[in-house]
């Protein structure tokens, strides 16, 4: 655990019982807002574009109620504080068909595509702790490797809205290596395909 993360952080896969906590993290402040609901990479572009905000919420609720949780929730002092969207790359429909983040190979990897950290809990290493748990979560589900598509900051500090995919430095600290540059950018900065091999990683009990 990074030194600046509070010792009382708890991270759990999102389940139907934790739906209200996930809403705290992802629902728009304005109830009439058209939130992403962290589905932009999971749904085909056409379906995502056609769904209004409430429809996206319902679609995510269906995923949460499914067999494999679509991500992890971090709690600090019992309060929902952060979210990581992780799952099989093949289930990320837009990602699987992306022309800017192309697959490096045919390995059935899992992908980490998004981090959300609530105001008041940022700059404390929470996203990095979520990433470590995402690796363990993927390993526990038999993934041969896990990928991310973070931004290379070049030492600059990016806003949370632009660094939601994580940074290359954070992924490197979590044991990921760079495989290939992508054609995607964030704030005009390049993004990379980074991977951590899970071969030989023992699943958690």
TrEMBL record:
Describe the location of the N-acetyltransferase domain by residue ranges: 9-199
| GO MF annotation, one | acyltransferase activity, transferring groups other than amino-acyl groups
Highest rank taxon of the organism: Bacteria
Instruction: Keywords in alphabetical order, please.
Output: Transferase
The record's Pfam families line, in alphabetical order, gives: Acetyltransf_1
Protein's name in the database: GNAT family N-acetyltransferase
Species annotation: Jiangella rhizosphaerae
